[in-house]
Structure formats: C-alpha cells, structure tokens
Amino acid sequence: MQEDKEKSQFVDIEFTLASSDSEQISVNDVAHAVDKDAKVSTLSQNMASALNAVKILRGKLNFLITVVKESPDIRKNHNFMRRLN
Questions:
Q1: CA angle, residues 39, 30, 12, in degrees to nearest 5
Q2: Which mean pLDDT values do the consecutive 10-residue runs of the chain (85 residues) have?
Q3: Cα–Cα distance between 42 and 30 in angstroms, integer?
Q4: CB 33, CB 42: distance < 8 Å
Q5: What are the residue boundaries of the structural domains of the chain, listed by start?
Q6: How far apart are CA 18 and CA 20, in angstroms?
Q7: Cβ-based neighbours of 41, under 8 Å, separated by 6 or more
Q8: What is the model's pTM?
Q9: Per-residue DSSP letters for 10-54?
Q10: What is the dihedral of CA 56, 58, 60, 63, to 10 degrees?
C-alpha cells in the first residue's frame, strides 16, 4: 500500500524548454569540445580567450575614465566628449 501512495504523488505535465541562442551555442560547444586526449577542452580555451578580451577592454575603459577624470582640458573638449559618449 505504501508503494501505491508514493507512485500517485507524481503527475505528468507537458513543458517546453526555453533557451536563448547563447545557451544553445554553449551547450553545443560543450557537446563537441570533449576530446579524451586533450588536457584542456576547446570550450575552456574559447572561454579563456573571451575572458582575456574582456580584461583588455576593461583596462582600456578604466584608462579612459581615469584620463577624463584627471584632465579638465579633455572635459572641456565637447566634441571629444560627445564622441567618447
């Protein structure tokens, strides 16, 4: 009797899995990045490359922010500030 009671607690439902293109690409990359002989997967290499690109961009943005904050002459150049914005 206990087994019948436990089985009746589950209900079948219909569902669809919503995902964005980036999630689908990531899952696809994981599925194809597995190489049993490789020490590092291609997914890890791609993620490291993307992370390095973001770090470089962040460094450049921080440089621009510092220069603009510390230079009143640059802030007075409205044409440059519009382009920067």
A1: 140
A2: 59 74 70 63 74 92 91 89 85
A3: 9
A4: yes
A5: 2-84
A6: 7
A7: 33, 34, 35
A8: 0.46
A9: -----------HHHHHHHHHHHH---TT-SS-HHHHHHHHHHHHH
A10: -140
